[in-house]
Amino acid sequence: MPLTVRKIEATKPGPKPITLIDGSGLQLVISPKGSRGWRLRYTRPNGKRNMMSLGSYPEVTLAQAREKRTDARRLLAQGIDPVEQRQQEKREQQYSQESTFRVLAHEWHATMAPRWKVTSKRAKESLRALENYIFPYVGDKAIEGIKPLEWLELLKRIEQAGKFEQRRKVHSFCRDIYRFAIITGRASTNPLSELSSALIPHKQKSFPHVSQEELPELVNAIESYHNPLVRIGLTLLLMTALRPGEMRQARWEEIDFQDATWSLPSDRVKMGRAHRVPLPTQALAELRKLHMMTGQYGLLFPGRNDPAKPLSDAAFGMALKRMGFEGRHVPHGTRHVVATGLKEMGYPGEWIEMQLSHKLPGIQGVYTHAEHMAPEQRPAMMQAWANWLESFKV
Known about the structure:
Elements: H1 5-10, E1 18-23, E2 26-30, E3 36-43, E4 49-56, H2 62-77, H3 82-98, H4 101-112, H5 122-133, H6 135-138, H7 148-160, H8 164-183, H9 215-223, H10 228-240, H11 244-248, E5 255-256, E6 261-264, E7 275-278, H12 281-294, H13 315-322, H14 334-344, H15 349-355, H16 362-367, H17 378-390
Antiparallel strand pairs: 1-2, 2-3, 3-4, 5-6, 6-7
Helix pairs in contact: 4-5, 4-8, 5-8, 7-8, 10-12, 10-14
């Protein structure tokens, strides 16, 4: 006879397990301690006998247990073992949880962070961008389940806010996360690879910078600036074409007065490779003045409140504003000025690109590693440039 709820409730635990039969393999086993569990005995597609648990009573009611029995027998009719099917579903669920975009993004970030420069903001910037623009929308979705249209809508949302540079970065980060997922076997395609054609092209504007005709004005404004630390920093930017961040974080151990070179370690250079900068005589003179002021510290440009930390990243920019160059010239724009000036003086593009610590385009960037540090090459070029700058002083 099929089981009834009344019979189940009336059956009390005994000294040995009690088995109540409902039929078609469904049983309720009552242990001596009083627990009641549903079991289904069945024959596997390979002919062997097996038993599977269907949950505990009363959490799983008699009606629900019968539904589970029907589902299992339906699978068996298709030649599918219900236990193996359950295990497969459990694996897929676990795989799905481990393959959400958020999980993969954090794995990618943990893999890439050690490769990025210690002083770079890229590690924090990438995670912050994902948390702001991506995770709230698709972070908990399986990476394979996110449609290209969803990605397009997310990127368009950033685009419509006028944040084109942020959109470019987010697009790049997410595309790289998909590449990581493909390499680790958790994605088969990269929907972000083909989205560029559906987005509004955005050409990054160059940093504001003075023209070559305005260069004498800039040189003399810097020369007369009241703060000697900032004055020397801005002067050295013009003589070396270093990035402002590379300048501010520079340490005295990088300066070789004897060899007239400034050697930046790979962890402080944007391109991630060591960079040697030739120092003209005028730059060496400025560095000697600076050494008298900050030589007792590790940093060339120590902060005002904490000499263990570099000068504020706003110091150079604020000085240029006070000189009257607001909207006309920013510290990073100095690199444009130097590059243009050297090009107009007729120096080879390879020398200029190396001075700027740029990677050469195309195949040259892969195979060409020449530093052009022979005396007649970059050292002579930067000495000529420093002489040119000195000629503007009044």
